[in-house]
Amino acid sequence: MARSIPNHIIDEIRNRTSIVDVISSRVPLKQSGSTFKACCPFHKEKTPSFTVNPSRESFKCFGCGEGGDVFSFLMKHDGMTFMDAVEMLADRCGVKLEFGDDGGAASAAKRLLALHTEVAEFYRRCLLQMKGAEGARKYLKSRALMDDIVERFKIGYAPETPGTLEKFASAHKYTIEEIAAAGLGAPLDNPRPGRNLHDRFRGRLMFPICDTQGRVIAFSGRVLDSAKSPAKYVNSPETDIFKKSRVLYALDKAQRKIVAAPHREAIICEGQIDVIRCHACGFDRAVASQGTAFTEEHAKLLKRYADSAVLVFDQDPAGQKAAVRTGAVLLAAGIPVRVAHMPEGEDPDSFLRSNPPEAFQKVLDEAVGLVPFHVAYLRAQESSPDSEGAAGRIAAGVLQTIAICRNEVHKARMLQETAELMRIPEEALQSELNGIEEVLKRQQETAGRRAEVRGGGVTAAATRGALPMRDDIPFEEPMTYVDDEVAAGGIGFAGAGATKNGIAADLPDRVDVSVCELLVHTFYDDKQVVTLMAELLPSWLVKGSVCRRAVAGFYDALRDGEDKLVELQEADEAVGEFIGSLAVAPNKTGGRENFTALDLAHDLILTQWRRRCKARKAQLEPAAGSADSPEAARRRMELMLAERRLMRWEEGEATVRELAAKETEPETSSELTLQSKSPADETPSVEQASDAMDNPGEEPGIEYEQLMPEEEMESGVEYDDY
Fold first, then answer.
1. Per residue in 375-400, is it b (16+ CB within 10 Å) or e — as a string?
2. Per mean pLDDT, which range of 237-251, 522-536, 585-599 is the poorest?
3. What is the DSSP string of 504-533?
């Protein structure tokens, strides 16, 4: 039976593979600007007309006309079949192949696509014909969304009536399991005849989400009656055909317009209604990320069509911060960025409803480069922006953005622009930039080495060039991937030093600080990460007293409300100062290819439990001259096997959950202080001794069943344009 490979696996192989590396191993390439040239391997020529474009991941010979992607090159040059080319490149870049057949994954994906197409048409008919959809029709009219644009974006309505999806599935020969696999509904705990599913989107205005081929792969639902649901906006969960980090809303409609536009410039908005409004008014180059912050995968996808981008975000602090971060992501992908300045309180939707298209075009034309926007944004954060200290912080923040740019010409121009705006000698800025780039380079190399050691399928070559994304604040030592060999060290703020009697083991180490840093930067934006850590990483596993109190405070705030965290910071000066120092440090918790905040959470959880197993195993070692008991030996073997399983999340998650369920807080902290230390670690520094404090009391446990379910957290995401 013929084998097939899911499209998302093919896309992952293509994204991880450098077409330049593959072709240069067979044809000598010479760089020419942003492309590479050679004499064509498919016909005889003396003047090079064979071009490889790394940003498009394609090749083209302007002599014989041969062209294509990396797969077609291997098929034409090496005589491989498509499957041979896929398997060879998968092995090269470390992607695990998943095969299907007519009754497997490929067939299931086709069924899912067909299901989404038919459901979208059904929701569309409901909007047009149902009496119960009158509220949805009135809402669209109130937002001035006319019939033609509603039809163009296939906007529909999910009926309020229970059991509608089951009737639809029965009529169209789909199973309950397929409806659930598509994320359209969830099985009820207490099913009854005709009622086996809870409709995820019932009573909502429906916005289909399409892939680049225009196929419906997911939905977004907007609540019409806010009294019925606190979740204003609900997305489909990720499925076999929908990965939100690989989808840009309306790119299927915008891609040809972007390619044909001057400078191939894309318009990036924050929300779907903004995008729809732009398209309705003739600005059909607009796209938006789908239910997540703009990622490197989004930038790579956009790079296939766009050579530049203009950001049109809200002017509130959240919108400006998002513009800086999105601009940095695009810049790292080689896409020059401009930022449009919208009038206060306006977004593209509201502005275009009250102004002619010419006014919006003027806003786009007057968009400024990322550097001037970033400088202005950072100056607005300072109480005395012209002071010497503020100038240093602003310059450091802007240099962070410049450092990730891979185009040397563009980088030089941005550096010159920064020097002029801040009236700082360019030589001084260049010196600082060199230091930042050196640290980023070391961070890349470290990430690559650890990826290779852990066998995660990502080689050093795959991580090369994947610079870390960080927020717009001065550079500090980056958050690193964690492992078992982490040396203890002090932190440069009051209260985080030694205990009153100078026990160096109570100092927070890099793992504990990384736990706190992750919580600081995800607590308000990514409850999935925080909830997972609260469930599987108890605060008593954290060794340093200040770190431990901070972690417990975050968990309490997750359970009791965000004000709880504010109360902790006010009541505990050391913890407040610690959290404050992390909050103004760079956000290094994600935004890098093959590395997200959730990946880091998995890494930290595994590391803390490995340390716990090591400590328990050391406790079970027999004393000198004593006989070893069979029970102790058996228990040590169990702990050793657990340590091995805790190296990778795929194998270690079950072990973590088992340990978290049965392990309790030790009566003393001695077993949590075991680590390899140099003799210098035994004596605290003068600064640590001066900041000595008592160990805190034990923290109360958390009833995890009170935490918000993952589905409700997903549905709780709100967008400003709705």
1. bbbbeebeeeeeeeebbebbbbbbbb
2. 585-599
3. GGGS-BHHHHHHHHHHHHHTTT-HHHHHHH
Contact 312, 274 (CB under 8 A): yes
Task: Count Cβ atoms below 10 Å from residue 401 Cβ, excluding itself.
Answer: 23
Pick from 87-96, 139-148, 500-509, 510-519 the range whose average pLDDT is largest. Answer: 139-148
Q: Where are the beta strands (DSSP E) in 134-269?
A: 156-157, 185-192, 195-199, 204-210, 216-223, 233-235, 248-249, 265-269
Per-residue 3-state assignment (H helix, E strand, C coil) for 474-502: CCCCCCCCCCCCCCECCCCCCCCCCECCC
Identify the pLDDT of residue 310: 96
Measured CA to CA, the distance from residue 661 to residue 655 in angstroms comes to 10
Q: Alpha carbon 214 to chain centroid distance?
A: 24
Residues 421-480: tens digit of each pLDDT: 999 898 889 988 888 888 878 777 776 666 555 544 444 344 444 434 433 333 333 333
What b-and-e string marks burial along 158-194, b requiring 16 or more CB atoms within 10 Å of the CB? bbbeeebbbebbeeeebebebbbbbbbbeeeeeeeee
Helices 545-560, 573-583: inter-axial angle, 10-degree rounding: 80
pLDDT at position 147 is: 92
Prediction pTM value: 0.56
Selection from 568, 588, 590 nearest residue 580 by Cα: 568
Average pLDDT over residues 693-711: 31
- By DSSP bridging, strand 286-289 and strand 265-269 are parallel
Cα–Cα separations (whole angstroms), residue 630 to 401, 619, 678: 59, 15, 33
